[in-house]
Amino acid sequence: MPRRVVDYPGVLTISRPVRLFISSSPDLAAEREALGQAVAELPISVGFEIGHTTPDESANIDETLAFIEQCDLYLIVLGADFAAPMGLEWQRAQGALRPTLAYAKRELHSPSAQKLLRESGVAWTPFETPQGETFGLHVDDIDGLLAVLGKEGKAPSDEPDQREGAGRSGIILGHEG
User: Fold this and answer.
1) Where are the alpha helices (DSSP H) in the chain?
2) pTM to 2 decimals?
3) Does 3.40.50.10140 match the CATH number of domain 6-153?
């Protein structure tokens, strides 16, 4: 199936998966999961290739930094600490002039996190819970996009979401249009 080109005048035109890198504090597993699931639900035909901070030794930092240099969007989610390897990721994204979205959890921050918040030069959006709406991914907006595409959105359920595994790096296939 041929891929459609995403065309937002003056913004971005691509015919490959959108490359998103999420740099996050080690304490934010629930937030990484919520973001991965929210991205997977977006009705985009080209799909996503997502990279995440991996603080263990098994990660190849050179591959991670190369991905960041080529990503379409760099998203930083700051929890209690600005811990390794987040500093390297931040420096590479800013050095490569990657478009950046920055979120900071409302909690006590370590000295390194406080320094980043003060000196980063980016606008930080505060959040409290790991829900998708916290990150500006509102259900009403998604329902509107789905309606335009001729698909009906699901009504929010009171049942807790039991899906998991979206908080790791991976590829999200595009939705058929």
Assistant:
1) 29-41, 61-70, 86-95, 111-119, 139-148
2) 0.69
3) yes
